[in-house]
UniProtKB/TrEMBL annotation:
Subcellular location: Cell membrane
This protein's record includes keyword Transmembrane: yes
Taxonomic path: Bacteria, Bacillati, Actinomycetota, Actinomycetes, Kitasatosporales
Species the sequence originates in: Streptomyces albipurpureus
Annotated keywords: Cell membrane, Membrane, Symport, Transmembrane, Transmembrane helix, Transport
Record membrane topology: Multi-pass membrane protein
Name by which UniProt lists this protein: MFS transporter
UniProt domain Major facilitator superfamily (MFS) profile: residue ranges: 8-416
Length: 440
């Protein structure tokens, strides 16, 4: 991989990292600001309110996927990526200055809701634009490796958020964190997004987009009409995302709360478990992505789905009785290693299904729909099961979603080797030279 490719990956990943830092710190700091926007009452109910607003952000992601996917296919990946980070900066700033319930009643919750809607709009376009950009910017034989940096940067954003939480937990009193300290990460996120905006203004467009051989008419690029010509691929994105997104959000955003509220670990220990496990998780993404360039995408997807189907219930049950850091860390890491089969390559798998003229929209809209239905609601569903006294039912729900995706992985075609400029063509591997057999 040349310097130009690495530069594209770096700039695309840096922006993605900031986007997901802003997205995830909402979930990481929810236990500290839940009481700021809602009246006194049941602690689980407060968390359900903030989780509900968290889920609402996901329901804006299809809108963001449609709008910004259209921009990416018509104006270029660079234009969409610059716009997404602008929206994210504005939303983080809104949360940072939102008034509390004691000051403005439910007005603060309304500001929080508007900010999450903007975040959903931004992330809905960011995922597809960055997935498409990283896939197109890499050499064909290293596409899985390069696109894995999407989840490296996503996880890095969450690691930075958790790291900041750990620092604040150890340098501020619990009262200060609940009172005003939770605003700090949103201020940092807004400033970091402004820096990334500058970086993305100077980023290079991908050669695949600029030299596209796609025969989609310009008037149809990035439109739903053009996407409907690829209904099977769009449905495939929804189905293959279903199990992966539920498992991912279970073991990232919800895990800290589960370890604290259900396993009984101190908040500081639960945060440290997630932080350490996510560091290892981020490091193995390029290894798994590189492996997919050698053996194909389907083996990794099948491994993930089979592991999640069979191991989710045992892992969640054991986590509830972990009792200390090391057992909780080991089980959390095992779960994250299982879902690596999905996270490391899902960006390139989806991008490899569509032609250039509708690639960003084809990834964005179906993926956002699946996330709205399954990923965004994962934490709320988990808390609902807990509040209903049937907490173990959530583990079976996650396993069931993975089982559905397993069926899809077993029946889908292999996408490794797809020529991004010619849908269905494979040009990376030369056909074997015929062997001449001497006649007698």
């Amino acid at each position: 991989m040349g310097r130009a490719q690495w530069k594209k990956i770096w700039v695309g990943s840096a922006g993605n990292m900031v986007e997901w830092f802003d997205w995830f710190v909402y979930a990481s700091f929810a236990t500290y600001f839940a009481g700021a926007f809602f009246p006194e009452g049941n602690e689980t109910a407060k968390l359900m309110n903030t989780a509900g607003i968290f889920a609402v952000g996901f329901f804006m992601r299809p809108v963001g996927g449609w709008l910004l996917g259209r921009v990416a296919d018509r104006k270029g990946r660079k234009a969409a990526l610059t716009l997404t980070v602008t929206l994210m900066s504005a939303s983080a700033l809104l949360i940072a200055i939102a008034p509390t319930y004691s000051v403005a009643g439910y007005g603060g919750a309304v500001v929080l809701l508007i900010a999450r809607l903007l975040q959903g709009l931004s992330v809905g376009g960011e995922y597809a634009a960055s997935a498409t950009y990283l896939t197109e910017a890499s050499p064909p034989r290293h596409r899985g490796f390069a696109s894995s940096f999407q989840y490296v940067s996503m996880t890095a954003g969450q690691i930075l958020g958790l790291g900041l939480l750990i620092v604040l937990q150890r340098t501020m009193s619990d009262e200060a964190l609940h009172g005003w300290g939770w605003r700090i990460p949103f201020v940092i996120g807004a400033l970091a997004a402004a820096v990334v905006f500058y970086l993305r203004r100077t980023m290079l467009e991908t050669e695949v987009y600029e030299e596209s051989g796609d025969d989609t008419p310009d008037c149809l690029k990035g439109t739903v009409k053009a996407l409907l010509a690829h209904k099977r691929e769009a449905f495939l994105v929804i189905a293959l995302t279903m199990g992966g997104t539920v498992a991912y959000y279970t073991y990232t955003t919800y895990l800290t709360k589960y370890l604290s509220m259900s396993a009984g670990l101190p908040k500081e220990t639960a945060t440290l478990v997630s932080f350490c496990a996510l560091i290892v998780f981020a490091c193995v993404q390029p290894l798994a992505g590189g492996l997919s360039d050698r053996i194909g995408r389907r083996p990794l997807l099948i491994t993930f789905a089979l592991g999640s189907t069979l191991l989710t219930v045992p892992i969640m049950t054991l986590l509830k009785h972990a009792g200390s850091f090391w057992p909780a860390f080991g089980l959390s890491l095992l779960a994250l290693l299982v879902i690596t089969g999905y996270t490391s390559i899902n960006a390139c798998v989806k991008a490899e299904l569509f032609p250039t003229g509708v690639r960003a929209l084809g990834v964005a809209l179906p993926y956002a729909i699946a996330n709205a239905l399954f990923g965004g609601t994962a934490e709320y569903v988990a808390l609902w099961f807990k509040d209903s006294g049937m907490e173990s039912g959530f583990s079976w729900y996650v396993a069931g979603c993975a089982a559905v995706s397993l069926i899809v992985y077993l029946t889908m075609r292999e996408t490794r080797g797809t020529d991004l400029n010619r849908v269905g063509a494979t040009v990376e591997r030369e056909a074997p030279t015929p062997v001449k057999v001497a006649s007698r």
